[in-house]
Request: fold
Amino acid sequence: MPTPIFGTSSTGQFSCATDTQHTLRDLRTKRKGQPVFVLGHVLARKGQEGVFEVFNDRLAIVKFSDGGAIGYDPLELLLPTDIDDKGIAYFEIRPCRQCEQLFALTAQECDATEEPTACPECRGA
Reply:
């Protein structure tokens, strides 16, 4: 496995979706083991959960529970809505009614009386 480059860390806490962080690309420091939901280009893996391993030639390497590993653009990797005290990631993924792209809800949006129906980009966030 390649050595982590700038912007990766093996310490700290995993991140969840926030108003300003929706994808792995949005994270300033990416932690090895960060749970992600794959939107990416490999149809057999689309919609699966995995964990970020390391960057390799501008691609985020994601490892899956079956041992497979694939490189993705960090923009194709959604952050979890919440991570419980046992470290289990939960993803609340919705399709945007305007552009039809999938997006992750934040914990606050999940708990709100009315969930957003548009992705952060279409909402202008």
The chain has a mean pLDDT of 88. Residues 107-111 form the longest helix (5 residues).
